From TrEMBL:
Keywords: Cytoplasm, Glycosyltransferase, Purine salvage, Transferase. Coiled coil: none annotated. 5-phospho-alpha-D-ribose 1-diphosphate binds at A128, N129, G130, Q131, A132. This is Xanthine phosphoribosyltransferase.
């Protein structure tokens, strides 16, 4: 998606440790017009698939999933990273290691909202090591539901996540795949 790549080149900031900061337009401050185009692109890439629900993980994936859901006309469900009084009753849980935060989370969704008849599209902002997608996929499988596919805004193609997800047989669509990046040379796309 050229519009996204152009925005990454213009406003993305590369930090040491293979970190790409896109917080000025994607996952802290959000450019809604860009998100609208991202939502339309996910709809185009998953056209013809039966999707009944979009699943993401808090917090950065929520805005992306909500805008995309408008084009799919389905609800969004997001996995929470901590149990609260708001999530009562039985839950599906999975462990997820965050590349960005360097920490393991127990993610959960209420069994009330993830049903065996659901056809689920998983959306998220980044794909690095694939742990978030695998954890979300496990929640869907535990519910007896079906993962239709996974949509990622930015995939770090030089890390193992994309290969791992594709080997699982999941239909993966990444809008921008970064082949390599460095502070000195910027970003190169696949």
């Amino acid at each position: 998606m050229q519009l996204l790549k152009d925005r990454i080149n213009k406003d993305g900031k590369i930090k040491e440790g293979n970190v790409l900061k896109v917080d000025s337009f994607l996952n802290h401050q959000i450019d809604i017009e860009l998100l609208e185009e991202i939502g339309k692109e996910f709809k185009r890439r998953f056209e013809g698939e039966e999707i009944t629900k979009i699943l993401t993980i808090e917090a950065s994936g929520i805005a992306i999933a909500c805008i995309a859901a408008k084009y799919f006309n389905v609800p969004v469900l997001f996995a929470k990273k901590s149990k609260t009084k708001n999530i009562a009753g039985e839950v599906y849980t999975s462990k997820v290691e965050s590349f960005t935060h360097g920490k393991v989370y127990d993610i959960m969704v209420s069994k009330e909202f993830l049903l065996k008849e659901d056809k689920v599209l998983i959306l998220d902002d980044f794909l690095a090591n694939g742990q978030a997608l695998l954890g979300l996929s496990k929640l869907v499988e535990d519910a007896g539901a079906t993962v239709v596919g996974a949509g990622i805004v930015i995939e770090k193609g030089f890390q193992v996540g994309g290969e791992l997800i594709r080997k699982q047989g999941i239909h993966l669509e990444s809008l921008a795949i970064i082949e390599k990046m460095s502070v000195e040379d910027g970003v190169t796309y696949r």
